Amino acid sequence: MSQPETRVTKQRLAVTEALSEVDDFATAQQLHRWLQDSEKKVSLATVYRLLQSMADDGLVDVLRSGDGEARFRQCVTEVHHHHLVCRSCSKTVEVLAPAVERWAARVAAEHDFSDPEHTVEIYGLCADCRAKAESGTSSAK
């Protein structure tokens, strides 16, 4: 049975446009604020609903911050991927990880699960933030 086709509404187009304007991940509240500033009439509840629908369809990436808040970005890579995220500046890099895919499939099979799904985010410090931290340390001496 095929999935029903997603309706393209003015609100969906507006949220898609807002996502295209941000370079990094943004919260639903940030996108809603951008829409209001652009005089687009989309309620916050609709922004949340559309973002969830787009995430379910694989059109946006979702990252959860330490406090559980979801951040969204249009996918750069069209295939299943994971993220490296800088703990300092939130710079995000999409990465393919075939070893993770094989591991997830193996673990699922070992426990008699099928159709495994997973999300992997690796947090660290990007080269720019690491350089800033090191230069700040050396200048403080």
Going by helix content, strand content and strand pairing, the class is alpha+beta
Structural Rg: 19 Å
Euclidean distance between termini CA atoms? 67 Å
The amount of beta strand, in percent, is 15-25%
Itemize the secondary structure elements and their pairings.
Layout: H1 10-21, E1 26-27, H2 28-37, H3 44-56, E2 60-64, E3 70-74, E4 82-86, E5 92-95, H4 98-110, E6 121-124, H5 127-139
Parallel strand pairs: 4-6
Antiparallel strand pairs: 1-3, 2-3, 4-5
Helix pairs in contact: 1-2, 2-3
Features:
flat, alpha+beta, 3-stranded mixed β-sheet, 6 strands, 3-stranded antiparallel β-sheet, 5 helices, 43% helix, 141 residues
What does this structure look like?
The protein is 43% helix and 18% strand. It has 5 helices and 6 strands; from the N terminus they run αβααββββαβα. A 3-stranded antiparallel sheet has the order 1-3-2. The model has no long low-confidence stretch (mean pLDDT 85).
Summarize the structure.
The protein has 141 residues and is of the alpha+beta class.
